[in-house]
Amino acid sequence: MEKAILFAVLASFCTATASICQRIGARSSETAGFDIWLVFRLARRPVWLLGVASMIGGFLFQLTALQYGALALVQPILAVELLLVFGYMAVAGAGRVRVQRRDWLAAGAMSAGIAVFLRLASPSGGQLHAPGATWLLAGLITLGTVLLLLALAFGLGGRPAATRSRRAALLGSATGISWGFVAAIIKELSSHIDDGISAVFANWSVYALLTVGAATMLLASHALAAGPLAASQPGFTVLDPLSAGLLGVFLFDEQIRTGVFDLAGEALALAVVIAGATMLSHSCLILGEDEQSPVRCTPSGFQAPASGKRLELGYQSAAGTPSAADSATRTSGPPAP
Q1: For the segment 307-318, what is each residue's pLDDT rounded down to a tens digit?
Q2: Is residue 316 part of a domain?
Q3: Rounded to an integer, what is the distance from CA 69 to the centroid of its chain?
């Protein structure tokens, strides 16, 4: 169990790095519709490629963690990704953005909620493989849920398209659910690694992982390009472990404690994690990236650059709104020669 926890934490470091790098790379490529070529455009940006490399590292650590522990153990630990995103942005924005007391409270609540959930649930047992019919049913349910969220995000079927932030939140939720299904495939794949490389490539799971993983990466790119990280990150962080935990019980017959008091405590712990993630996602460290955010996120006395441009990580000027000169520049365009 200790090895599973260690590798799950390492995977969280990698996925947090991937979220930051990919959001920076995708920020200037926001799309209002589904664009299958988005990944190819982003692949020309070194920071986005660094995010992809970090994501691959996270996959390898996650694969190793799932060799030593159950889905219901490993995936909740990955929820610390949002805490690490918080830490990255706190360091990068030091002196330029306010860190409020509620930010640290949310971070502590999330950590405590994850620890309490794991202590009460004590996930264990389970089988190495799931029947094909069960996999098909789980895949169809996951696909149907993701397609519904896509329809709501992009306004398919005559529905109006969602707003920028809502679209990012819906796509982030779809991505989190998809990553949970990917984690279940990784769990299946991990059971064949000890049998040798030929056994791995003779099994269906490696090909399903390549297909579903590529589709989920495309979905994640759209979520990160759709709007602020504050909108998409909670879906990544919360729905991934929740969907993976349900799939672990459904597919692999993993066991968690189900006594009345255990279930009540587990539900309360998950509620604390979700509340902490939601509060943390509205931190100035994340909201400051959104130029449309009405929240004043910079310390008193901070002076924005004379050019009126946002800083590298996207924080606003001290007034929290664009300056008059900045607005005039955008309205009138560049001066005539």
Answers
A1: 444 434 433 333
A2: no
A3: 21
Backbone angles phi, psi at 126, to 5 degrees: 100, 165
Percentage of the chain beyond pLDDT 90 is: 17
**From CA 133, how far away is CA 127, in angstroms rounded?**
15
- Output phi, psi for 11, to 5 deg: -65, -35
Residue 337 falls within a domain, yes or no? no
The 10s digit of each residue's pLDDT in 91-106 is 765 555 666 778 788 8
Residue pair 175/219 in contact by the 8 Å Cβ criterion: yes
Output the DSSP codes for 127-193.
-S---HHHHHHHHHHHHHHHHHHHHHHHTGGGPPPPPHHHHHHHHHHHHHHHHHHHHHHHHHHHTTG
189 domain-assigned: yes
Total tally of structural domains belonging to the chain = 1
Strands (E), 156-288: none
242: tokens are 């929740």
